[in-house]
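Case study 2.
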Amino acid sequence: MKLGMDRNAQLARLVLRALLSLQQSSSTPVTLERLVTVVPAPASSVLAMLRVLDEEGFVDASRMRLTLQGFAAANLPQVVAFERRKAPQLRKAYRVVA
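Prediction:
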């Protein structure tokens, strides 16, 4: 059961990141056909995940755009990686000398 949940979470991340990338790289509207070609998964799985993400409020499927919540979720891995790179510098800055 857990393996299936991991696959769904991975597919959700792929769809969100692909939508973000397509929106940022082009001024033309994102279409389902373009999304399906970018995400390395079967078209039926991408469509099903798009419906789930729309129901949960991450995507506006009628406009093929990320919501604010979806935008934040698509950028989350980049933010975490950035914070991890900055963490050692912050620890040194706040070292208390006794």
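The beta strands are 59-60, 65-66.
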